[in-house]
Amino acid sequence: MDLPGWQSLYEELKDQGLEIISAAQDTQGDEAALPWFDKANATFTQIVDTKHTISALYNMVNVPTGVWIDENGVMVRPPEVAYTSDVDMKFGQRKLYAAGSAYVAGIRDWVAKGADSEYALTPEEVMAQMKPRNDDQATAEAAFQLGVYFEAQGDDDRANRYWQQAQHLRPDDWNYHRQDWAFTPDEAGKNWMQKFNGMDEDEEYYPSLDLPGATDFDK
User: Fold this and answer.
1) I need a surface site. Which of 14, 39, 75, 82 has the fewest CB within 10 A?
2) How confident is the model at residue 29 (pLDDT cuts 50, 70, 90)?
3) DSSP, residue by residue, the chain
4) According to CATH, what is the number of the domain 3-129?
5) Is the pLDDT of residue 218 over 60?
6) Residue 132: pLDDT over 80
7) What does the pLDDT read at residue 215?
């Protein structure tokens, strides 16, 4: 997670009105999430979402994902990959890119100019970019939430069965996989690498950002 970068940005812009709310999506709760916040010395608002409610409501499928909401509670940018610095790495045979510097430049511009920022979208533009779930994706979300429920009840067998169904119906939702892998941390890295390198050539791990300055970096 990019928490130290977000803490630095918060310290830079908080007096100009920027608020950051970071939500850790993990059924294991504080025990799993708080060490990451502590390590970053985070002073912005921190939420531990054990039911994955936020990712469900905003249809988030990967981390880190950010949403911009103005002082009136209106979304001005939909869910997008949210790093504070550029990511340019290679894992196995595939490369991973994320234009974090362009994303942060957008935040600075938005904080300074508000609705006049070229980065701030109208509600119509936001809705045009957001994709509603199809039937399989909606069923996958329901199955995943059942897995979350049964895991909280201590019924690991049922939880795993529903999580497997969710992953099968929506294999591009990395959050589903991550939650399942969190219970076998020794195998999580291997599982991620296998799935990442098994993606089709036209699949994007992080969709390219539609932001000024991001095009030249994303490949």
Assistant:
1) 39
2) very high
3) --HHHHHHHHHHHGGGT---EEEEE-TTTHHHHHHHHHHTT--SEEEEETT-HHHHHHT--SSSEEEEE-TTS-EEEEEEE--SS-EEEEETTEEEEE-HHHHHHHHHHHHHHGGGSTTPPPHHHHHHH-----HHHHHHHHHHHHHHHHHHTT-HHHHHHHHHHHHHH-TT-HHHHHHHHTTSHHHHHHHHHHHHHTS-TT--SSPPP-STTTTTT--
4) 3.40.30.10
5) no
6) yes
7) 58
